[in-house]
Design brief:
It is built from five helices and no strands. With about 140 residues, it is mainly alpha-helical. The protein has one domain.
């Protein structure tokens, strides 16, 4: 017998058809500064990075228009008519809401971490009171 390939060897090598493997991708916030759990919670509960940046961009643009750094897209009369006709929140109001929501998520996260720490410390106190005392002294 020769050491060459046999007729069935073409069926035994690893062959991967397009899209035959996992096609989902985990977009991790671990690359960003900050606490990953908070970043994920903000993205899920408040708004995506795109939404946040969009609101910030609109607010910056509005501020630039107000200080005269950008030419206005509409005349003041047209803008006043639009404001009277429909009262949509301004980008600055949206930004204020976004900041409030982010702070709410951060506070909820801090409270949850504090509850977890308290539960863990109580559990440690039941299991080993000396270790519990030692740990609390270390954080004073």
């Amino acid at each position: 017998m020769s050491g060459g390939p046999t007729w069935y060897s073409c069926f035994t090598f690893p062959f991967f058809a397009p899209l035959s493997g996992g096609v989902n991708q985990d977009i991790s916030t671990g690359l960003y500064q900050g606490v990953p759990e908070i970043e994920i919670a903000i993205i899920k509960e408040v708004g995506s990075f795109g939404l946040q940046l969009g609101i910030i961009s609109e607010a910056v643009k509005e501020l630039a228009e107000k200080v005269g750094a950008m030419p206005p897209e509409r005349s003041p009369q047209d803008r006043a008519k639009l404001d009277e006709a429909s009262r949509d929140p301004t980008p600055l109001e949206k930004l204020d809401d976004l900041i409030r929501d982010v702070n709410r998520v951060k506070e909820a996260y801090k409270e949850a971490v504090e509850r977890d720490a308290e539960r863990s410390l109580k559990r440690l106190n039941r299991v080993d009171p000396q270790a519990s005392t030692k740990l609390t002294e270390r954080f004073r």
